[in-house]
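Q: Two folds, back to back.
A: First:
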Amino acid sequence: MIKEPKFSIIIPVYNVENYLSECLDSVIKQTIMDLEIICVNDGTKDHSREILEEYQKQDARIQIIDKVNGGLSSARNAGLAAATGEYILFLDSDDYLEQSACERILYEILEHHPDIIVFGTHIFPYYPWPTEWHIRNLTTRTTAYWNDGINALMNENGSTPFVWRDCFKREFLHQHQLLFNETVRFGEDIIFQFESFPFAASIIFISDKLYHYRWSRAGSLMASASKDMYKKYSYHIDAMQIIGDYWKEHGLLDLYGKEFFKWSVSFIGWDLFDYSGDFKEILTSRARDFWETFNLNQYANSLTAKNRVYYTYILNYPTAKPK
């Protein structure tokens, strides 16, 4: 019987010919060899496919999966279907790993055998300067959660929203039938985390920065969404709805409804309070409908003073005005 590799690294590839070599170099030069590299060609239209072929000639660990363009979630799911590694890592093809990333993660695996490992991230380029939000959310501390995934998800800095700095035990993903939601084009990471973290028996956070995130790139999905704040906030509410449906179906809402409500207000509250663009009434109406649909208004007294201001404003918009 062929021994399964320790890691499967899944790399969705779409129109990244200028960045792909740096990404692949960081993987094939890892300080441990026990890994498979699954590159999912998601219908790329540039020379990325040819670059993959050249690297495959150099390194037999590279697999190329070709598929019609279906988006990031579809590509990741195709990679998951092909993965045989004990642990799964996701790597965006315009980013790259620290050379010792897998070795450092392996140490935690041998020590703790966790379901999920979360690590820190370097941010580049330095111009434009990364936002304070990026710096804060991509910095992690070293700590562990045992049978307390909800607390980790809701309260531990760095638990969301980027799945490429999470390492998952493949058996855990299979056990809970976890896949990326292919109906969304934005927010798929946080949906996946809200569907996985609550069921994890063990989650290890480490402060080591093992991933290099290209936070600003023309043409990226993040850049496109940031240009249209109405669309971005609509995607956020879509994600909240999908998570709410999943949590209700799996009994999580009955157990952790208050925590979910507080998170939803912190997730969307300030954005809608501050938003001054078109169709604000639509966004605030959707937020109100969301809280009502999942019977979350009953937890309003649990909000912090700041979030209560945002929540009350959204409930009463358009008559309410920011102070």
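A: Second:
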Amino acid sequence: MKEYYGGIEAGGTKFVCVIANNPEDILEESRFSTTNPQETIEKTILFFEQAIQKHKIKLNALGIGCFGPIDLNTNSPTYGYITTTPKPGWRDINLLQPIKSALNIPIAFDTDVNAAAIGEGKWGAAQNLDDFLYFTIGTGIGGGAIINNKPLHGLIHPEMGHIRLNQDISKDAYTGKCPFHHNCFEGLASGPAIKGRWGSSAENLDDHHPAWILEADYIAQAMSTYICSFSPKKIILGGGVMQKKQLFPMIHKQTQQYLNGYVQSEMIFARMDEYIVPPGLGNQSGMLGAIALAQSI
């Protein structure tokens, strides 16, 4: 009986379930919308039960990379819960326990962005690096940090999408999409913020639309803050908004301008295109990160 690992990229918009050993050995995957918790969790469990029976395989372990905030404290009575999420119907939901009860295998649980970062470190753009950051900029904005080869948790876990940015209301009077902080990074630069400000989703805006000058500025503000805070050896920017590849050179230039020569590194002033980069795993960072998370048990 061949052995595999399971992975769940539990996103606020969609769930991706996968059975794999590495990027070249993906046995089966399924993507479906994140609806209500009961329906979504039942679909998740059914995928793995059917795949195990169909392929006659053994799952060694499962990794779950989940949208947040989540409870990662293994001593907490709400370990494995989604906590104060703004997603309707998902606040204070126990995601981990019903899946663990159904599948009865070891499960590693972390944020979706930490899982994606782990995947990028193992197979993607951050191979052989021990300190780096991964961001998804899409439906929401989140950041995962790998520090000394370990995902950073701290008090709960980083919420890098919720730092405050400088907003010039003479150029951008948008009130912000985040229900908690309004004009935080997520509130000003996420996909829903772009749609709320311009009346059209990111994928439908022309590459030369003024939206991208503003978007690059907000992302660069955040990146300069994280460079000064974490001193990462690389920053990876994924998510739906970052499919607009013209953003990268704009972000590079603006980040350099915000740092203003203060951080003296060749990566900053001469090799920025190698420093702030797209994911090496493309849109598979999250699901393969969940596999890598499972393999870390």
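Q: And?
A: The CA atoms of residues 119 and 289 lie 4 Å apart.
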